[in-house]
């Protein structure tokens, strides 16, 4: 499916020169003598309607409200549902019986763990992706109607205030670090955009120098508008290239320091390392495929804590996906880790990435990978302690 462009910027807004990436092919369970043993996958949800912060910057509030009267704010659109289905199709193709054979054709609870943030758009994305992953075969067809086309798959979602996947909204320590990053960036990265401030204040009523994250907010507003079939405002069109760059810089503020990266992606990384260590030690490990239906900040955080090269160039769009995969080479017994990025489910091919420190091979020796990333490991209980979150989990 080729993406429709309502404006030039909408097709180039997430473009990256993937000079260090390679295309992949999916054939069977062993690729170049390597057998897949474990995969942790984080996806961004499908296209959504604007959220309240974005809507506050629009001068077409009533039109947007009418267009989104069914989905509501932050709701998954019909286009977003189709994108979510493509996420599931990709997972089935890559990890199913015709791909790397980590998952069966039928749903087996010991094979897969599915977690979503407690947001409608991510929970709906998870459900639709699972419908594409597990079209029910005869053994799981539970009636002659819906049961022939839909297999229910359970997922976990914890309250937003306790969820490590929502670190940017519930972690006081992260918020403190973000405030510092914003204050520093006003006089550094965002000084080059000072000439845009007067126009933005006139058009939105907001002072972008007080909060540079507003650059990303207005960028996301325009993306939502385009996805809904609206063009961007005329006043904004000449500014779009620079607004896009300012938005990318705003997004990167979430990963400005190692401490911020650790809070954002350290828990998933820690869980991956723990599971990998048990597998390598010969222990029984269930749920070797773990999927997180989440947000761009989760995709980006995991990329940063795993030391992906040029991660600062990537702005995860709707339907993007990042995976870290553990392999065993049959002939030598070596364990390796491979980073895989899918820019847009249904519209692009997956790419093999490189880890910084493992630039000579997409498959990084596991011990080397573990050594490179150990400073970012964050056990879940330690996350709650750092963030001052009270939980019974």
List keywords for this structure.
393 residues, alpha+beta, disordered N terminus, His_PPase_superfam, EC 3.1.3.2, His_Pase_clade-2, acid phosphatase activity, Histidine_acid_phosphatase
Describe this protein's structure.
With 393 residues, the protein is α+β, with helices and mostly antiparallel strands. Strands 1, 2, 3, 4, 5, 6, 7, 8 and 9 form a nine-stranded mixed beta sheet that branches. The model is unreliable at 1-29 (pLDDT under 50). A hairpin with a 5-residue loop joins strand 6 and strand 7. Helix 4 crosses helix 5 (120-133) and helix 9 crosses helix 10 (240-252). It is built from 14 helices and nine strands. One of its GO terms (molecular function) is acid phosphatase activity. This is acid phosphatase. It comes from Parnassius mnemosyne (clouded apollo). Keywords: Disulfide bond, Glycoprotein, Hydrolase, Signal.
């Amino acid at each position: 499916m080729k993406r429709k462009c309502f404006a030039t910027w909408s097709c180039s807004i997430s473009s990256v020169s993937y000079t260090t990436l390679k295309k992949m092919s999916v054939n069977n369970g062993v690729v170049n003598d390597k057998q897949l043993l474990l995969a942790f996958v984080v996806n961004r949800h499908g296209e959504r309607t604007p959220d309240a912060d974005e809507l506050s910057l629009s001068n077409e509030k009533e039109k947007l409200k009418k267009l989104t009267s069914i989905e509501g704010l932050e709701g998954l659109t019909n286009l977003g549902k189709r994108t979510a289905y493509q996420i599931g199709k990709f997972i089935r193709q890559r990890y199913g019986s015709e791909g790397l054979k980590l998952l069966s054709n039928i749903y087996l609870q010991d094979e897969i763990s599915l977690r979503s943030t407690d947001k409608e758009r991510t929970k709906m994305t998870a459900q639709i992706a699972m419908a594409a992953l597990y079209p029910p075969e005869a053994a799981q067809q539970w009636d002659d109607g819906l049961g022939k086309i839909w297999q229910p798959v359970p997922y976990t979602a914890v309250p937003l205030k306790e969820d490590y996947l929502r670190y940017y909204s519930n972690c006081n320590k992260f918020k403190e670090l973000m405030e510092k990053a914003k204050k520093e960036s006003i006089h550094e990265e965002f000084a080059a955009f000072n000439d845009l401030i007067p126009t933005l204040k006139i058009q939105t009523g907001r002072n972008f120098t007080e909060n540079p994250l507003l650059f990303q907010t207005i960028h996301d507003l325009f993306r939502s508008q385009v996805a809904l079939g609206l063009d961007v405002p005329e006043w904004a069109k000449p500014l779009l290239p620079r607004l896009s760059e300012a938005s990318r810089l705003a997004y990167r503020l979430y990963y400005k320091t190692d401490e911020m990266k650790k809070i954002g992606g350290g828990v998933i990384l820690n869980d991956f390392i723990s599971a990998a260590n048990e597998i390598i030690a010969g222990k029984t490990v269930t749920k070797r495929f773990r999927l997180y239906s989440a947000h761009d900040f989760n995709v980006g955080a995991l990329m940063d804590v795993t030391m992906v090269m040029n991660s600062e160039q990537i702005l995860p769009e709707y339907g993007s996906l990042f995976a870290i995969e553990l392999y065993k080479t049959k002939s030598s017994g070596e364990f390796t880790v491979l980073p895989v990025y899918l820019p847009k489910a249904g519209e692009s091919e997956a790419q093999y990435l490189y880890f910084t420190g493992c630039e000579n091979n997409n498959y990084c020796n596991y011990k080397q990978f573990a050594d490179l990333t150990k400073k970012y490991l964050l056990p879940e209980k330690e996350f709650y302690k750092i963030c001052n979150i009270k939980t019974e989990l």
